[in-house]
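Final report, results section. Input specification for complex C-07:
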Amino acid sequence: MKFDNPAGKNPIDRMKVVGKAYNRIDGPLKTTGQAPYAYERHDVAEGQLYGYILGSAIAKGRIKSMDLTDAQNAPGVKGVVSTLDHDPMKSNFNTASLFGGPQIQHYHQAIAMVMAETFEQARAAAALIRVDYAREDGRFDLEALAPSAPPADGKEVSYGDFDAAWASAPVKHEARYTTPAESHSMMEPHATIAAWKKTDDGRDHVTIWTSNQMIQWNKMALAGVLGIEQDQVRVDSPFLGGGFGSKLFLRADAVVAALGAKQVGQPVKVMLQRPLIFNNTTHRAATIQSISLGAEKDGKLTAIRHISTNGNLPGGDTEGSTAQTQFLYASPNRYTNLHLAEMDLPEANAMRAPGEAPGMMALEMAMDELAETLDMCPVKLRVINDTQVDPTKPSRPFSERHLVECLQQGAAKFGWPEGGKYPKPGGKRDGEWLTGIGMAAGFRDNLLMKSAARVRLKPGGRLVVETDMTDIGTGSYTILAQTAAEMMGLPLEAVEVTLGDSDFPASAGSGGQWGANNSTAGVYAACVKLREMAADKVGFNAADVDFDEGEIRSGGNAVALSDAAADGELVAEDGIEYGDIGERYKQSTFAGHFVEVAVNAYTGESRIKRMLAVCSAGRILNPKSARSQVIGAMTMGAGAALMEDMAVDTRFGFFVNHDLAGYEVPVHLDIPHQEVVFLDEVDEKSSPMKAKGVGELGLCGVGAAIANAIYNATGVRVRDYPITLDKHLEKLPAIA
Amino acid sequence: MRAFTYERASSPAAAASAVAGTKGAKFIAGGTNLIDLMKIEVEVPTHLVDVNGLGLDEISETEEGGLRIGALVSNTALAADQRVRRDYGVLTRAIVAGASGQLRNKATTGGNLLQRTRCPYFYDTNQPCNKRSPDSGCGALHGYSRQLGIMGVSDQCIATYPGDMAVAMRVLDAVVETVKPDGMTRAIPIADFHRTWESAPEKDNVLEAGELITAVTLPKPLGGTHLYRKVRDRASYAFALVSVAAVIQPDGTGRFAVGGIGAKPWRSTAADAQLRNGASAAAQVLTQGAKTTEHNAFKVPLVERTLAAVLAEARSKGAAA
Ligand SMILES: Cc1cc2nc3c(=O)[nH]c(=O)nc-3n(C[C@H](O)[C@H](O)[C@H](O)COP(=O)(O)OP(=O)(O)OC[C@H]3O[C@@H](n4cnc5c(N)ncnc54)[C@H](O)[C@@H]3O)c2cc1C
Ligand code: SF4
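Structure output:
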């Protein structure tokens, strides 16, 4: 099904099942430990060996030699896969090689995997591998490299004349902001079981049971690195314990599991040990951002410039921290660009809301600083600079844009002060706590991706949905079931959803908050086809039927839906595809974030007291799972603002705090109260579902709102995230 | 993790001689620190002697009016003991500020005193670390050292003793009781129990090979207001950047010890004597000679400010009483 024009009225608009706050249909499986996660799939293949990966001890250089003898002779060991026995392997999705060859590109690069009968044997044997390295100097210090980092190709956006407008702007704010490298640190590490078999035509075929967000990308990537055809690979990933972008791309676990299983002729399972998550996989790049905002005295922006620099391995990508600056506020003149320094730290790549998450942390702090310079209400400053069109392409309207409503409703609900200006920074004390409030706009793009599904109407009337969509904890199972139930006029219980198998039709997958809208639209498309088939089957005119309460109705007649499958199941497959509607209309999601914090006047510890997000993201398919997404994202934003920081050793070239004791993420006590409001709206240009993404929106802006609240509490502006106590301790107001 | 053998000891003295008699042997109590370190081969014992079940898990009153805490008393049981809560509140407060409920259920009094540093280079066997691997160098000194120590440190090692319980025990002048392999016992004041890093940072404390901690005794109660303040980046489940244990008397005199800054819980009687003159005076004396890095220099003002918070809280509690 091609979606190229705004959706008209359709069966989803009934909202009998869609839009209801159902519990996750997969919840009982998870709470009873029966949801099959990759490492626990003992039943899928007989005789699984345990793998244990050895990571490189150096950050850059070459392996001169590797002595495997002791490891190979250790108890229980069945084989060792060595990087020296393979050519470097990486897919188009990877910057760093995942495995193979003597060259070391980053710390904890996988260089060997031991396979043994027990996990303990594999781990003990891995420690017996002796490696002789030739170390080389590397580039590990972003601060030192940033000044000479060149602009990346094709990232510049220039509109109007920034320089002239800046020179003549009556009010200006300009500052430098930094965000640190962050780790996805999802709960479930990367894990894979691999098993080979011969197909009927005598070819080799590998199945990986893994934890991955994008099934087709990974099928393609694995086939590529193994040098086999895509039909020789099956990827199965029905449940994931989080991903946040860390599981978008093929990773070392899948590669070495496949190589190892082939080498020993036996299934192998392997999980990345926690310390490898930080230096072996990807992370969000650290950024250094400079922002210049010029305005009239009334606050109208006349000049915006935003330049962000990050580092990456040669051939790696930018962190697009200026993405939102192109679209969020009106201004006739703007300039944004991204600079990229070549470095030898592990690969930087997408983490939840890549670009906008760190970009909004800087931009929305800068906006607050401008409001202060203007002596103006920060909510009003954002409202008067709203735009309903793409500012650098005024003929292109936003599909729906309700940022102003988010900000105004949020301010009212939060109890933003009368008159709108911030209370005097550092002026409010509650016992030993300085208290403050802060706000920020939220912004994240909505992306359109094609997505397919198959639906089976079973004899007896049950409906089965099949798509390779993944549920990374987001609630995909539930919203896909809701969509199919709504389309076919069935109760939710009559629908079964099966996901994550590459033998199923290719979906949009989970990433970039595109999963919900596109994958449900794919199921919608398949159901439209099934409706036609069912109507046809029972002899109704497909143009004039209604599916409701388990019946197909036409004119005054009704038959049970199950009758359509009485003599054999009906199977329909289709997908959603988009024309240029995303070009014609700019599609984004919006929020207003409001936060209250307390900062200890003695110790400088910052603690959040309450958070509110008002979100605008089209139709909300399930308010409960959508809320979970937003509060989870707000929590991640709290981590980014207050504590998450991958510390770099600039001599040895690695992230030092590579476990969950050293890399702190928020705990329950850090997050006392969160409230989420969704505006009641639909976006007819996003898909037949009229929905948009929410999974990343909640993260974009919240960090700045926290930072702004801390400033309001202390009167000390910290522009280097995370805002830990050492950064403002000695500048705090004197203790009375 | 390397393969190891295991036995249960039949008595404290037998445990001590079992460890002394086997090269590379170690005691295991709750295992919450030791096993983590064994998994990554920072600790590589050849033989483990289990000291649970030796009857060392009782808290009893001493003739001097204090308490004797068996070495195997769990952190949970110790923190919850009515006598401790009543007379040694600083100890309960310190314990419950540490780790998590599950860990405190397993963690023991002796094991807690002996928990090893949380220096990230100590934990990464690819990195130089004099404490883990003598004479390999100190990775942290010119590396990432935000968590690490400023007192009792040297170019050899800047690790901290990371725990909470011992900071309170330091302020209470606890005494560590041990038995040696030959059956001799000794009583080590907690002030002398942990070492500093002028030399041989691989050795955390003064215990001899095979010497088993049997108990920790607390002198008779001090009265006063008992406070423990732990400062950290997140609100719970993190090691201290700085912590202050204090017992403050109604007249403003008292004593305090500081965690998170040194090779051991840091206290000085000269600093205690300055408490009457306020946090600034006392903290200055305590942190005299601090050896800081670019990353951990903030701990000096943080000690003073945390102490100020503690003294203010003591005053408000005293006033309320
Ligand atoms: C995730 C995590 C967070 C933590 N957070 C904190 C925190 O915030 N604050 C805090 O204070 N602690 C914290 N801890 C540390 C915890 O308190 C210690 O692991 C625990 O107290 C150790 O006690 P154990 O009985 O398990 O010792 P074990 O692990 O059994 O032993 C530790 C060491 O002591 C030796 N040993 C044990 N008993 C004796 C004895 N009787 N005589 C001689 N030697 C002995 C062992 O040989 C070993 O070398 C944390 C630990 C973890 C894992
Ligand atoms: S500070 Fe001590 S524990 Fe840390 S690396 Fe240096 S020697 Fe090792």
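The mean pLDDT of chain B is 97. Residues A 661; B 26-34, 36, 51, 71, 98-99, 103, 106-108, 110-112, 114-115, 163-165, 212-213, 239 surround flavin-adenine dinucleotide (ligand 1) (CB under 6 Å). This concludes the modelling results for the funded period.
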